[in-house]
Amino acid sequence: MERILRSEEMAEIIFLPVRHHSPACAFHVKRMIEKLRPAKILVEGPQNANELLSVMVHGETRAPFAVYYSYDDAQGRISEEREQYKCYYPFLDYSPELAALRAGAELDIPCAFIDLPFGDILAASGAGAGLRSKKEKNNYNDDYLLAQNDYIKALCEKSGLQSFDQFWEKYFEVNGYSMDGEAWFAGLLSYCKLARENTARRQMEADGTLARELYMRGQILREAKLLRRAGEARCLFVITGGFHTPALAKDLRQEADAIENELERLALTRIPRERQGVYLMPYSMEAADALNGYASGMPYPGYYQKIWEKLGSSARPYEETALQFIVSSGKETRKKEGMLSTYDEICADAMARGLAKLRGKQEPGAYELIDAVLSSFVKGEYNIATDTPMRILQKQMTGDAMGELCRDAKVPPILHDFREQCKRYKLKVATTLTGEVTLSIFAKKRHREESAFFHQLNFLDAPYARRVKGPNLQRGTDRNLMREIWKYKWSAGVEAALIDASVYGATVEEAAVGMVRASLKKENDASACALLLSQVFEMDLRGQLDAVYDNMQEVLVRETDFFALAKALKLLRKLRQLRELYQSNLVIEPLLESCCRKLILLLPSMAAVKEDDAPACMEALKLLYQTFGSAQELAELKEEFLRVLGDATESQKVHPGFLGCAQGILYGCGSKSAQEIEYAARGYLTGTAEQTKKVAEFFHGLFFAAKDIIFTSRTFLELLDGFFGEVNGEAFMKILPELRMAFTYFTPVEIDRIAKLAAGIHGKSGGQVTGQDGVPADWYAYGRQLDEYVRTQLGVR
Amino acid sequence: MEQEQLIKPPVEIRYRQELAALKANDSARKPENWQLSPQAVRTFILGSKKPLTYEGKTYDIQKKYFGNDALVERCIVTLAGNRGLMLVGEPGTAKTMLSELLSAAISGISTNTVQGTAGTTEDMIKYSWNYALLLARGPVREALVPAPLYVGMEKGILTRFEEITRTPAEIQDSLISVLSDKVLNVPELGDHGILFAKPGFNVIGTANTRDKGVNEMSSALKRRFNFETVMPVREAALEKQIIINEVNQLASESNIAMEAEEDVVELLASTYHELREGVADTGSRIDTPSCVMSTAEAVSVYYQTMIGGYYYGGGQISVDALVQNLVGAISKENRDDLQKVRDYFNTVIREKSGREGGKWKEYYEARKWLK
Question: Looking at beta carbons, which residues of chain B come within 8 Å of A357?
Fold first, then answer.
């Protein structure tokens, strides 16, 4: 803890360095505040969250929650891309910052955040650094500067610990909570000083650290002077991430004037407030767990929550918690796997204590708990089959609690809109019961609107409604259905997701529009574009259709991926079929045409398609064929298609499946005769040994595109029959799976018909082949005997 | 016992000085009958940066087991408790070495060992009789020949059971009641026939999971052990260091005046590492052979090559001989494995020989021996 004594100008300032999410730290912060009773508490955090302070410390608000900051850079002040930015500042019960705010509220001490507003932090950060990194979730309180540097690496190595988290737990948590507060902060401060000395200035400049520190210094200075002027005898508390403390304290002592000058310069770049959003949102333990990848701070929030609850009230909080987790994970393991005894739990407890002693900890911590469960609960080699206890423990240590906000919490307009719309459609919110609605989307306008609302929510990733039945544009299933059935259920997660999307707009529809626009900016392939088009269609965002449509046209020109185009074509066809039902006047034909044209252009290169891609390629050919079959206006293109396809079949390295499929299509369109196809088939059948192996693939392709060919000309059957007579057993077994695939395109009735025809070749009637002789009675008897024998051997009743 | 006369001296002789130094400097609390405290056992196995002084000399305690430090700590705590310790894992992951180190540090002796085979019988584990004495004097204690389990219980030391899964399941099960009750009944001795285990007794088992011909352990037996799965070393640099240490140790024990050459070890370590992991350091995918690609195997390939070089090659190690020995090591079970290694040479090693030159080039040229 760093102290700047009272001077003529300033009140006494006490700096408390903290690590975000640390029970011991929160514990000591709370005690310090209770002991020293400061006049004011300043906390690191963007200033625009000051208005949320009363809600944060409200009795009904339950952690975990997060402050959600957003900024819509419509004016391009951050970068030319004019993007939307957002970040989270999660709070758990044991976050020192929250502990300080709560203690302040209890003791009637005013509190305030002192960091730059979110937009200004963005402006001060370099592209791709700090809060501008292209991560899925950006965290305001990132401790990476404390946890990642050469110094900590060397320290861990020397102390024989595996990671910074283990180091921290040993020295600051388990062995630290019972220390005297001043000594504890002194230890942390010296650690932070060393960590800071080992961090490059360049890095601190890039991620905005230096600009933020400058601003915070200015705020501290101002508050200290104000307090002094008011004749306040009590001190000022400054609670910031430990990494900043040394810098804040050092410069404040020396250059108060210089700071003010620089601050003025900084004020010039101020980002306007109106486009910045700041809200509280419920947060989950899972999201707060560092191990999930997008947060920093300590891992295992569920575990440390338990520790926090016991700190101060229990003499051995860690020991008790370890036992509690051993018992609860043991219970769960027993439920899932059986065979875990109380003695196993006793051994685990002994192991945890023993390890703590060996590792020089006063009590077993999280890592001793994990080791204890690993060694006592896992029986046999540790692998995916035996790691159930570990997975259970991991889950329990993460915890599953979700925060709650008090009723007065300010919510973004999008949430009001959501509630309004739910009221309008008579949908339940604020109960967690599942409801169901049936919507005649094609018959009633209101139902169509409701369906669009649900689709918009889904597009925003708000887990409110789920379509259980109804036509599916994307998958192309259930197109015959005229109604949609939706199940819906409200949860805190829905609101969290909507707050998350609030940066895109003030209503659900606006946010959906914003997200559509944002995704248009991304590099999309043709299939993603078509998917977006279909989603816009479902969401009924008529205003956006043109933009997506234009984008689609551009992408179609650029696209060179055959398969992405094929997927796009499939979606476009679906859209065209359902267009009228949805009462849309979208003109899909030009898109269809350019998609087909592009596919034909790429077709020659697909003749020698790779084995793995062959089915998708055949699917694409058939799709093209079907598209031309139903669209008269594409007749000219159809000619082109058949010509290119004909050329492709001549290619030397043509894939047999592709060839079969192409021949089938050409036959279907009447540009090839059955004889020509026969000739090609004969080529494989009578070829060298390697080529005959491809027979099945050829027929697979052929039947896929034109299965009726087998009934029109008897020669195909004769050809196949002759081949079966010649091929040896081993080779036949090899091609059998592919042959089976080839014949799956026939219905059972057709298979019977083929069998009859085949029987005819050998001068037998269909019944003689398809009918089966009864199984002799003694076979049954023998079978039963075998069964019985196996059963007794296995000891099964 | 003179060190020079043994092919492989046991751990307690090899590290006699270190153990004595640790004991003299050990002030922490010891479980009953342990030679060292758990902290000192940990230091003995995992090494320490702080040198120890003993009888006027200073000793650096070297790290002897590379791998997971937390695992070693768990092993030590298990042995101080009520359950046996079972080390499982693939062959060649230094399970036996770890069990020897633990025994030597805890009980001062690592040779109280049952060597499990398919032919192991119960009397090789518990006790048998000296039949001449038995006939002459009847069933008296003097006529009883104690086996390792008996010895461990009687003296309060660790009993090691090597390759436990190689012994038939019913023989393994003879451990069950001893492990839970810590009592061995010898009915032939009548009233004096009950042997209570002294504190300090415990069992360390090692078991292979990948070899052919292993017997599954019964769940009753599994319950009496804490299991520790020893994983192969995942870091190429660490693997290289292990090979160098081991080879130098072996060489000095056999009075071969040669030391492992770092760049040649590098070839072997990266080959073994990449073939086992199935990915080259450039990210290329590699077919992994079905044979065991353990660090212990790599050590023996290198050592063999070294001996060859010492006696026939004028004290120089040859890359050709290294590849020849590699062939011998990998084509034990399956001829297809050799093809996989050949492919590996033709892709990964070829690329490396072009990029790095030097020994890698020599190594690539030696691929002619891969047949």
Answer: 38
CA distances from A175 to A155, A308, B192, B243 (A): 17, 15, 51, 39
Of chain B residues 13-72, which have a CB less than 8 A from chain A? Answer: 38-39, 42, 46, 49, 69-70
- Token readout for A357 is 């002693």
Q: A466: which strand partners?
A: A487
Percent of chain A having pLDDT more than 90? 17
The H or E element that residue B67 is part of is none
pLDDT tens for B78-129 read 999 889 999 998 887 888 999 999 999 999 999 999 999 889 999 999 999 9
- Give the nearest chain B residue to A373 (CA atoms): B226
CA A569-A570-A572 angle, 5° bins: 65
| DSSP SS3 for A80 | coil
For residue B30, the distance in angstroms to the closest alpha carbon of chain A comes to 11
Whether A367 and chain B come into contact, CB under 8 Å, resolves to yes
- Residue B215 in contact with partner chain A when CB distance is under 8 A: no
Reply yes or no on whether the pLDDT at B68 is more than 80.
yes
Phi, psi for B357 (deg, rounded to 5) = 65, -155
Strand order in the sheet with A84-91: A84-91, A65-72, A276-282
Q: Provide φ and ψ at A466, rounded to 5°.
A: -135, 130
Which of A339, A347, A357 is nearest residue B81 as measured by Cβ atoms?
A347
C-alpha closest to that of A496 among A279, A284, A281: A281
Question: How confident is the model over A704-730, as pLDDT tens digits?
Answer: 888 888 887 777 788 888 888 877 788
- Chain B, nearest residue to A344 by Cα: B223
Asked if A236 contacts A37 with a C-beta cutoff of 8 angstroms, the reply is: no
Bridge partner residues of B54 (DSSP): B57
Give residue B119's identity as a one-letter amino acid code.
Answer: G
Residues 347-366, chain A: which have Cβ within 8 Å of B?
347, 350-351, 354-355, 357-359
Residue for token pair 């949320």: A52
Half-sphere exposure of B154 (CA within 13 A, CB side): 15
- pTM for the full model? 0.75
Q: Say how many CA atoms lie within 13 Å of B194 toward its Cβ.
A: 5
Q: At what angle do helices A589-602 and A614-630 cross, to 10 degrees?
A: 140
H-type helices in B36-143, by residue range? 38-46, 69-80, 95-107, 122-125, 131-137
Check A382 against B222: CB less than 8 A apart.
no
The three-class DSSP label of residue B99 is: helix
- At B311-324, the pLDDT tens digits run 888 888 888 888 88
Residue B227 with chain A: CB contacts under 8 Å: 375, 378-382
Q: Is A795 exposed, middle or buried (0-12, 13-18, 19+ CB in 10 A)?
A: exposed
